[in-house]
Amino acid sequence: MTWVESLQKAIDYMEEHLLENISLADIAKQSNISLYHFQRAFTLLTDMSVGEYLRRRRLTLAAHDLSKNNNKVIDIASKYGYETPEAFSKAFRRQHGISPKEARTYEGKLKSYNRLAIQINLKGAEPMQYKIVDKEEFQVTGIKESFSMMNEENLEGIPKMWRKVNTDGTSDKLFDLNNGAVKGLLGVIVTESGKEAKSMDYWIAAAHKGEPEDDLESLKIPASTWAIFEVHGAMPDAMQKVWKKIYGEWFPSSGYENASSPSMEVYSEGDAYQSNYYSEIWIPVK
């Protein structure tokens, strides 16, 4: 099954079960790829999270119901998963800009999000700079936080983690410790083995030989074959652009698949917001 087919199968499942309380794990299972990689690919290729897609589609259908029948708002709210009319009205106004009552009386415009169909452009007009490298096991030292992927807390938690590290001196400390096999500050993604893993660890670390200091931890990165992609440009846009091309162009056409080892983003020293900033994405492949 191709990337496109995998994602579309998961989207079709969401559409068939929009009125049910489905979990991210249920959805990802349909794609036959791990929860983390499904979540990452979906967000990058659609520019929204899975939760946001479900919310938008449910509120779109709720607007149709309001304009077509006389069911009570409380009944429509319950149908689309809202416990109270107040919560439903708040979410409805946030999406449509008008209240459910105004939608029923045709006052104002409604915003419709249609069923998603994944279409990937494989022209590859812009070349991707990458290399395939075999590397032995190495150690990284840094800080770690664990996140649930079920409620998408990782999408909010990881940027907060970076903001803290960049303001409390931890990033400078890690750069000073960087004496290992990879040069730069690392964002390391570690998921449990198996496609049904529901949590992940995220490390901000540096490749380091030696014992960690008291307030830091160490992790062994296993020997792997890595696809290493160059990223040129200011953060975060340049990094997101390359990730999107990896999932949208490279994986569908390269013949490689994600291996089960941790993947990494590698940040060099310097001003990450400058147009000439250099960074890398390291993905273990098979």
From TrEMBL:
Keywords: DNA-binding, Transcription, Transcription regulation. It comes from the Bacteria. The keyword Transcription regulation applies. InterPro entries: AraC_E-bd, GyrI-like, Homeodomain-like_sf, HTH_AraC, HTH_AraC-typ_CS, MarA-like, Reg_factor_effector_dom_sf, Tscrpt_reg_AraC-type_HTH. It holds the Pfam family GyrI-like. The keyword Cell membrane does not apply. Residues 8-106 form the HTH araC/xylS-type domain. This is GyrI-like domain-containing protein. It comes from Halobacillus campisalis.
